[in-house]
Amino acid sequence: MQSKLVSSAVRLLLLVFLAFILFYGDHVGVSFDFPHKGLFDNIYVRLAKCCLFLLLIIELLRLYYYGIIKNPNPPKLIGNIATLLVPLFILLVVIEMTFMFISQSQEGGITLASKIWFERYWPPMTGDYRDVPKTDTLGKKKIFLVGDSFTAGHGLKSADERYGNVLSEKLGTKEFVTYNLGISGSDTRDEYARLLKFGKTPDVLVLQYFPNDIEKVARDHGLVPVGFTPYSDLPRAVQSLFIKSYLLNYLYWQFPHGNFAPFDVYARKAYGTPAIINDHLSDLNQFVVYAKEHNIRFYVVMFPFSHNIEKTAEYVKPVVKFFQANNVPMLDVGKLMTDLEPKDRVVGRNDGHASALVNKRVGEGLFQLMQSNPDATQTASVNKQAN
């Protein structure tokens, strides 16, 4: 009996060590590398964690069985505590394992549930892009959709629900081939650099714009948004648990953290500071120049903050005026969603990206914009900037 307790205790300690390496290996310089790490979770790593948990449960039950149930003289206090805590521990472990397979799209893509979501729904990918390889392209006109997470389809379980795919379906595949160059977190400079790097020249260029595209330019001028630091509202002693545990992490992000007011002040200052907005318009002007030099049909899709369309319209007035001055056809997405309830505008309560319904309207609206402006190559002076 004694030897069985000792051997179980030793195995339990070894399993605890392995659990530490699996969950907290980064604290000692151990990490697991796999494709798209940081964006995706990995099903095999999670399965390994589940197997480890099951082994821990087996050894814990073995200790309880031989130490309490089969022990002719079990310590009463320890026995009572073990009888209470062992089933509770097993229940929590089972719940934790369950949450390792629950996905949820989330605004910044930083939660454990969102990483599972990306692993489950984001593929297929071609390089860094959520797109399928293009094979049947000979003689077809190329459409480039350049943008950030709204173009990539953040929160949409099927890429077919994206506005770019809706547009592609409306145009048909006989004459056009559509390339989705959307990457989450992109700003104007990133998007232009990726456009040049892609190695092809489009016949039609669609630039998707969102009000946070000005952030990197503003940062260059020393203006940084006052943002919320995840988990900073928790005691330091438990922050790591909420970061590593799938259950606690999921529960934490079901409640609101931070507020929009600081960004409202920031956005007004960023778009209202001449030095910042002029540099930002210079970045946007590169797209106008590119379209003119390559005789490309150029369109812009303006996405708003879905929870406050009116404020977004105020922020981006200089950008709208700039594109108007350069005769660039624009699609104002805010006008396409004003009749929708706030919950119907977004993909989920934890994710403010455009819903499938909004994407459908945008794709159809962009198709109509292209039909009504078939010669959208810029002929105006490419150096115009709105004041």
Please provide the count of β strands.
Answer: 7
CATH class assignment of the largest domain:
Alpha Beta
The gyration radius over C-alpha positions equals 27 Å
CATH architectural name of the largest domain: 3-Layer(aba) Sandwich
Uncertain parts: 378-387
Q: Largest beta sheet: what is the strand line-up?
A: 2-1-3-4-5
Q: Describe the main β-sheet briefly.
A: 5 strands, parallel
What number of structural domains do the residues give?
A: 2
Q: Please give the share of residues in helix.
A: 40-55%
The CATH homologous superfamily of the largest domain is termed SGNH hydrolase
Q: Termini, distance in Å?
A: 85 Å
Strand content: 5-15%
How would you characterize this protein structure?
- The C terminus is likely disordered.
- This protein folds into two domains: 100 residues; 246 residues, Rossmann fold (3-Layer(aba) Sandwich).
- The chain is elongated, with a radius of gyration of 27 Å.
- The chain is built from 17 helices and seven strands.
- The strands form two sheets. Strands 2-1-3-4-5 form a five-stranded parallel β-sheet, sandwiched between helices. A two-stranded antiparallel sheet has the order 6-7.
- Helix 9 packs across helix 10.
- A hairpin with a 2-residue loop joins strand 6 and strand 7.
- The longest helix has 27 residues.
- The protein has 387 residues and is of the alpha/beta class.
